[in-house]
Amino acid sequence: MTTQQIRYFLELANVLHFWNTAEKLSISQSTLSRQIQALEEEFDLKLLERDKRNVKLTAAGQFLKEHWTTTLNELDRLHLQAKKIDVGTSGVISLAYPGSISSGFLPQLMRVLTQEMPELKIELTEPTDLNHEKLILDYHIDIAISRDEILNPTIQSKKLYAEPICLVVPKGHWVNATNFTDLKMVENENFIISALHNTTYFSSLLREVFKQHNVEPKTTIESDFGSVILNLVAQSLGVSILPYAFKSANNKAIRFIELPHTVDLYINWRRHDPNSIIKRIVSCSEALGKEYIS
């Protein structure tokens, strides 16, 4: 049995037509028939019920279709990872990141990596579900830069730096860094923030900050996208609380007022991943992180 035979069977199991399947696979119908027959003989069972007009799966064929599909998908993921390991300084690395670093840390890191490893292809993704742990363990990404440390024994994490979170107000707002004393001052303002009922790390941090300041924010707009929030604040639609990193966006229509609270930035990867490129990216990230607020 070969993986090619299994792929032929899976394609036929989806199409359920020998001639159409053979055409799709760019092989002859007789070749397809021989490969399917070879599988049936090896397993000593019937995978398909055939007549002159119809093809349908047997119960055994349906069972193998479901399990072989899962197995081949996993095999493809393993092959992809093996290729990444084999190529050394070239190849493909997938990296997830939070939107807050897209104007500062991330472009600087990309500049360093493209200089150090010019043949490396980097796939960037900003996951909306924030399930970095699953993405790493399923090999959908290789590295996750995140605001929280992933607590899993098979994942290694390192803190890159910490930075303040800030009250973000329109440029002409009456609150400024000189007269600001407490969030109570803006309790009656319209807030544009991440939904406080979310289970994300930053939403949890916001809940704690408001609790410490005994503030019940009047949230008028909810968004998990910092760039959107910046633009809305710039239009004087409300105020917000965001990491200091968003200041790198250089939006001249808003001001940042530092709060006595910090947020961390971590880099996370598979603990025993043998890919040397990942180790180099982690090293470059740590060196760059030392240049940031700590």
From TrEMBL:
GO terms for molecular function: DNA binding; DNA-binding transcription factor activity. Residues 1-58 form the HTH lysR-type domain. SUPFAM superfamilies: Periplasmic binding protein-like II (SSF53850), Winged helix' DNA-binding domain (SSF46785). Pfam families: HTH_1, LysR_substrate. Keywords: DNA-binding, Transcription, Transcription regulation. GO terms for cellular component: protein-DNA complex. InterPro entries: LysR_HTH_N, LysR_subst-bd, WH-like_DNA-bd_sf, WH_DNA-bd_sf. Belongs to the LysR transcriptional regulatory family. This is LysR family transcriptional regulator. It comes from Winogradskyella arenosi.
